[in-house]
Amino acid sequence: xxxxxxxxxxxxxxxxxxxxxDYRYYVLDxxxxxxxxxxxxxxxxxxxxAAHPGLITPDxxxxxxxxxxxxxxxxxxxxxxxxxxxxxxxxxxxxxxxERLRRALGVERxxxxxxxxxxxxxxxxxYEDGRxxxxxxxxxxxxxxxxxxxxxxxxxxxLRLSGxxxxxxxxxRGEVFLPIAAFEAxxxxxxxAGGKTFKxxxxxxxxxxxxxxxxxxxxxxxxxxxxxxxxFEGERPAATQSxxxxxxxxxxxxxxxxxxxxxxIDGCLAYHRALAERRDGLPYDIDGVxxxxxxxxxxERLGFVTREPRWAIxxxxxxxxxxxxxxxxxxxVGRTGAVTPVARLAPVAVxxxxxxxxxxxxxxxxxxxxxxxxxxxxxxxxxDVIPEVVRVLPERRPAEAQAVTLPSHCPVxxxxxxxxxxxxxxRCSGGLYCPAQRKEALVHFASRRALDIEGLGDKLxxxxxxxxxxxxxxxxxxxxxxxxxxxxxxxxxSAQNLLAALEKGKATTFARFIxxxxxxxxxxxxxxxxAGRFPDLETLAxxxxxxxxxxxxxxxxxxxxxxxxxxxxxxxxxxxPDGDLADWLAGLKITGLNRTTIPRLLAxxxxxxxxxxxxxxxxxxxxxxxxxxxxxxxxxxxVSFFAQRHNREVIDRLRxxxxxxxxxxPAAAAQAQAQPLAGKVFVITGTLxxxxxxxxxELEALGAKVTGSVSGNTDYVLAGRDAGSKxxxxxxxxxxxxxxxxLAALLERR
Length: 750
Ligand code: 5U1
Prior knowledge:
Elements: H1 3-27, H2 35-51, E1 75-77, E2 86-88, H3 91-105, E3 111-118, E4 121-128, E5 131-137, E6 143-145, H4 148-151, E7 169-177, H5 180-192, H6 201-209, H7 214-218, E8 223-233, H8 241-250, E9 260-263, H9 264-278, E10 286-293, H10 296-302, E11 304-305, E12 308-309, E13 312-316, E14 321-333, E15 338-350, E16 353-359, H11 363-369, E17 376-380, E18 388-392, E19 417-418, E20 426-428, H12 438-446, H13 458-466, H14 481-485, H15 492-505, H16 510-516, H17 524-533, H18 537-542, E21 549-552, H19 559-572, H20 581-587, H21 597-604, H22 608-613, H23 616-619, E22 622-625, H24 632-643, H25 645-656, H26 666-674, E23 681-685, H27 692-701, E24 705-707, E25 716-719, H28 725-732, E26 736-738, H29 740-749
Parallel strand pairs: 2-13, 23-24, 23-25, 25-26
Antiparallel strand pairs: 1-6, 3-9, 3-10, 4-5, 4-7, 7-8, 10-13, 11-12, 14-15, 14-17, 15-16, 15-20, 17-18, 19-20, 21-22
Helix pairs in contact: 1-2, 12-13, 16-17
The chain binds ligand 5U1.
């Protein structure tokens, strides 16, 4: 075989394999190979195609997402109208339907194909010569929108049919939907980003499919089940509805695994009842069961009334949404301390279940949906997920309706509730003793990277807390061998081992201890950074939010104010103005230079000479974090944690029980030793005995920062021979000026 022939064969083989594995994974939900192996095949195909772009085919598995967003959807005319379904709302209507059909067909019993009615949107897929050439929405039944590029991103829809016996032209019809878990995840993402959420999976599926940019559609894990045919050229593969569905399956199209032939009305009712039982456990929303006459010839004989076939019906389930009233809004505290608003509702039946509580997610969501106590609201439940308030009917709001406010204290333990600026979720700060967070706090405390208490796992913690033996981590150290030995799955030996592990864990490090406290957003790295920065726990506990910030310039002075001030100072010349400097500055009438900022400015840049030497960048106020990973949000969590008396009490008891760490903490001490100039800002100027770069490197290795210009933040100016303007500036700003000898002396002192 030629090289070209081999390449073509390899491309073909890879595409066939990938198609097969897509089918196993996305249609059958039964993968044959691990993801890593799939990725390997895909990468090989991608790199071959990248090297030979002329050999890329539109139905290659790499070509699902089109390159360009559309400017609008083109019209798609249906070759055969897309019909809708008649409904039965109760058993009597269902019986009447069966009765009508039996009479019309002159038979005693009708066989039906039953399958779930998915709550999604109807889509037509057109295959010509086995290749997907068009995807279209239903629209008004005659013309819809061309969503080919979007439909191609749905992984369970084959771009090319498999098997042999597909007809030259096939229009498969079915429902595109978003599984509930994907819907929940999408809404959580939107909520986190502060965006508008989708009301239900159906809206989310429609919104995702009708994206002009198919890349957006590709990010939403849409799925599809085909339930029938539209246009069809060539020989029919079967004479029954179930036979046709089997053919669709054979050609690689997704068909509901729930679809089944049932006999007569009793079969229909039994199927409907059985599926209702399982409705909440299904991974997608359904709103009923569709029954279709099994015999295609009978379907043809029955025909249509206006836009509905006589041979099919949707027997609906109770709606998943209902109207009710918000009686109160309470706040729940989760395992991680998240404080979540929950609506207490007037009990209402939703989808066959009585609902009296619904989540409101967070306070932003409450504001966005504008929920007040007393409001009439739509609640929705789907699957096993917690019911939620979907929207308010503002026109039904009573005069006495009350706005919802976040409690200042945890409803469980009374600790402060904190919501750092910019955060969506409010949290209880009583992490070490709040009963709602007890188990989580203990599991974290004992975990390997915290105090590493071997043998103290989730199950044991569960028992200890449930039996009231342990309420906070300090209680662990009061446990006796007898108490422990009395627990389930705990012998004398394991009890002894656990006590030994507790004892062993007492000798820890400062960083581990900080991490073990479970302060919100303080992970291992942040705990280590804190341990390196703070000499002891007392200092850390006493820190204020501002203490975690490093500031430059003068608070309150903006870029614009700094620039205008410098310009006026330059105009003013060397001689100080007569009278009070503060008055002179106020007289400049510069926005931002006022009674608050002028004293700060003068405190930092004392006199006329210093002020005149300042450049805008010396004056402009900026903030940064002093400790790696600790911005204002994390700082708020740290400060709030230590502000809780109960947290401090637990810490005191832990230390009284013997938890200790080397003081000063070895890492900090070692770092201090190795980096005697940590945090110091140097400027090097003039001619020195060694190359400037070498001195710079040495200073940096000792922890210093070397900058190019002298400012109010400069700690030392290392000045050599013939130093010029920088030396002058340093003097004007009152910065320490040293020579090489001075530097040597400084290092010796440290
Ligand atoms: N499962 C299923 N859903 N569904 C919707 N089958 C089905 N059939 C439909 C529709 C609108 O219509 C055909 C009977 C024409």
